[in-house]
Design brief:
Strands 2-3-10-4-9-8-7-6-5 form a nine-stranded mixed sheet, with no helix packed on it. Strands 25-24-23-26-27 form a five-stranded antiparallel sheet, sandwiched between helices. The protein has nine helices and 27 strands. Helix 1 crosses helix 9. It is elongated. Strand 15 and strand 16 form a beta hairpin. The chain has four domains: 148 residues, Acid Proteases (Cathepsin D, subunit A, domain 1), CATH 2.40.70; 92 residues, Rossmann fold; 64 residues, Dna Ligase, domain 1 (2-Layer Sandwich), CATH 3.30.1490; 94 residues, D-amino Acid Aminotransferase, Chain A, domain 1 (2-Layer Sandwich), CATH 3.30.470. The chain is α+β, with helices and mostly antiparallel strands and 462 residues long. The longest helix has 13 residues. Pfam families: RimK, Rimk_N, Zn_protease. InterPro entries: Asp_endopeptidase (IPR008503), ATP-grasp (IPR011761), ATP-grasp_RimK-type (IPR013651), ATP_grasp_subdomain_1 (IPR013815), Peptidase_aspartic_dom_sf (IPR021109), Rimk_N (IPR041107), Rp_bS6_RimK/Lys_biosynth_LsyX (IPR004666). Keywords: ATP-binding, Ligase, Magnesium, Manganese, Metal-binding, Nucleotide-binding, Protein biosynthesis.
Length: 462
C-alpha cells in the first residue's frame, strides 16, 4: 500500500484564522524564525489580571488599508522577541487555530505592527510540523484563498470572540446593571461600567475620542446604553461619539431619541398603522374643551412628554377635571399628550420585552387598588403573560418602527385587539426576569454577539 504524499508548503501560502475573524491572510513561511507573528495595530490589553485579553486591529490586505478587522483573543504570554533588524520588543502572545490545505492545528502568534512588511503574517518553524516539506522556490502549493472573501464579511455570521463592552449607566449597582454584567462575564466577555455624566468628548476630524476621568477611553466593541430620562440629550451625544469611534451601540442615539420623544414615537407608530389609544397633542392650547373632545372625552389621561415610570401621568375622570388639568398644564407652558383612557383594561397592561426583533418574555402588570398606573415603581404587581400571535406581532413591529434592538413595548389588551401605550428604550430587567423566570440579560448579550461584526467600523448615521 503506497504511503501518503508528504504535506508540502511553498515559501508563501494562504492561511485562515477563523477564530480571529480572518478567513484569508497571506503568510510568509519563514523557517529561519522560530516564532510566528501577526500584524496588529492599536493593541489594547483588557480584562482581569487572572484572565487577560487583548484587542487589536488588523488590515489583512496590504493593498486595501480601508479593510480593517477587529480581533480579540486571550493572552497566553508576553514574550521578548528579536526582530529581523535586531530590535528587541516585548510582545503579546495569543493562541488560535490555523487552517491550511485541509489541516487545522493550534498555533501561537506574537502581535506586532507589520504595516511596513509585505506579509501580514509570518509562519515560523515553531508552527511547522517536522514532517512537512518546505519548497523555498515554490509559491502557494496549497489551495489559494484570496482577499475577495472579505467582500461579503459584514453579512456573514460573526465569529465568536471575547468582546470589550461598555455599559453606559449612572446606576451601576441597580438590578439591571448587575444582571448585564453577570451575563456578559459568564459568556467570556469583559464589561466596563461608564458613568454617562462623567464622559466628555473631543470632536474633531482626525479621530473621535471619548474622555473619562482625565484619560481617553479605549475602543469598545459594543456599548449597552442605559441612559436615564434626566440625561437623555447629553447621553445621546455621548452615545453618538462612541458610535463614531467604531463601537456598535445596542440601541442607537437616534432610536433612543425617537422613543423618548412621545409625540414623535406616536406619530411614527400611527404612520405604521399600529393601534394606539386615541391621542391628542397640545402646547398651551386655547381650545381646552376641543382638546379633551379630540381624545374622546372624559375620562382622559394626560402625559407630559418627558414622563417616565408613571411620573407626570394623570387621570382626569370628568370633563371638568380634565379641563382644569389641561389648563394647569397650559399654565406650566408644558408639552403634553391627552390620551383616551381605556377603562376595560382594568388598570393592567402587558409589557413585551423585545430583543433583536423577537419577543423573549412578557409580563402582565396590574395596578394596585385605587391606582390606574400599572408601573412596578408605583406599586404595581407583575406576573408572566402569554401573548397572542397578534400581540407578539404588534410588539415586534413597534420596536422595528423605532429601530430599537432592545425595547419594552407596553400594550393594552382591548376588545379591538392590542394597543401600544409606550415603547421603552431602557426597559428594566428586574420585573420581567422575576415574573417570567427567564434569563433576559443573557438573551441581550447573546444578541449582541450576533450583531457585532468583525469589520471594525460601526457608524450610526447622524
Amino acid at each position: 500500500m503506497p504511503s501518503a504524499a508528504p504535506f508540502q508548503l511553498g515559501w508563501e501560502e494562504w492561511i485562515a484564522l477563523r477564530e480571529l475573524g480572518l478567513p484569508a491572510i497571506k503568510a510568509k513561511i519563514d523557517t529561519g524564525a522560530k516564532t510566528s507573528a501577526l500584524h496588529a495595530s492599536v493593541i489594547e490589553p483588557f480584562g482581569p489580571a487572572h484572565a487577560p485579553q487583548v484587542r487589536f486591529l488588523i488590515q489583512p490586505d496590504p493593498g486595501d488599508p480601508a479593510l480593517e478587522i477587529t480581533c480579540s483573543a486571550p493572552v497566553v504570554d508576553r514574550r521578548e522577541v528579536t526582530s529581523s533588524n535586531g530590535e528587541r520588543e516585548l510582545r503579546y502572545v495569543i493562541e488560535t487555530h490555523a487552517e491550511l490545505g485541509g489541516l487545522t492545528w493550534p498555533i501561537q502568534l506574537t502581535l506586532s505592527n507589520r504595516e511596513t512588511m509585505a506579509y501580514r503574517m509570518l509562519l515560523g518553524r515553531g508552527a511547522i510540523q517536522p514532517s512537512w516539506i518546505i519548497d523555498p522556490n515554490a509559491s502557494f502549493l496549497q489551495p489559494p484563498l484570496g482577499y475577495q472573501i472579505y467582500q461579503g464579511l459584514p453579512r456573514r455570521k460573526p465569529v465568536k470572540r471575547p468582546l470589550r463592552i461598555a455599559l453606559l449607566t449612572r446606576e451601576p449597582k441597580n438590578y439591571s446593571s448587575r444582571r448585564l454584567i453577570e451575563a456578559a462575564e459568564k459568556r467570556g466577555h469583559v464589561i466596563e461600567v461608564i458613568d454617562t455624566a462623567r464622559c466628555y468628548m473631543r470632536i474633531g476630524a482626525i479621530d473621535a475620542e471619548v474622555h473619562y476621568d482625565g484619560e481617553a477611553l479605549p475602543r469598545y466593541d459594543a456599548v449597552i446604553p442605559r441612559i436615564g430620562a434626566t440625561i437623555t440629550d447629553y447621553g445621546m451625544a455621548v452615545l453618538r461619539q462612541f458610535s463614531n469611534t467604531g463601537a456598535f451601540c445596542l440601541n442607537t442615539a437616534g432610536a433612543i431619541g425617537r422613543s423618548r420623544d412621545k409625540l414623535l414615537a406616536h406619530q411614527m407608530l400611527a404612520r405604521a398603522k399600529i393601534a394606539m389609544p386615541i391621542t391628542a397633542f397640545a402646547h398651551s392650547p386655547k381650545d381646552t374643551a376641543g382638546l379633551v373632545a379630540l381624545a374622546g372625552g372624559a375620562p382622559i389621561v394626560l402625559k407630559l412628554l418627558s414622563s417616565t415610570q408613571g411620573k407626570g401621568v394623570l387621570l382626569a375622570e370628568t370633563r371638568k377635571s380634565a379641563e382644569r388639568l389641561v389648563d394647569a398644564f397650559r399654565g406650566l407652558d408644558a408639552n403634553f399628550l391627552v390620551q383616551e383612557f381605556v377603562e376595560e383594561a382594568g388598570g393592567a397592561d402587558v409589557r413585551a420585552f423585545v430583543v433583536g426583533g423577537k419577543v423573549v418574555g412578557a409580563m402582565r402588570r396590574q395596578a394596585e387598588k385605587g391606582e390606574f398606573r400599572s408601573n412596578l415603581h408605583r406599586g404595581g404587581t407583575a406576573s408572566e403573560a402569554r401573548l397572542s400571535p397578534q400581540e407578539r406581532d404588534v410588539a415586534r413591529e413597534a420596536a422595528k418602527v423605532l429601530r430599537l434592538e432592545v425595547a419594552g413595548v407596553d400594550l393594552l389588551q382591548t376588545k379591538d385587539g392590542p394597543k401600544v401605550l409606550e415603547v421603552n428604550s431602557s426597559p428594566g430587567l428586574k420585573g420581567i426576569e422575576k415574573a417570567t423566570g427567564k434569563d433576559i440579560a443573557a438573551r441581550i448579550i447573546e444578541h449582541l454577539e450576533t450583531v457585532v461584526r468583525p469589520l471594525s467600523r460601526h457608524r450610526e448615521p447622524l
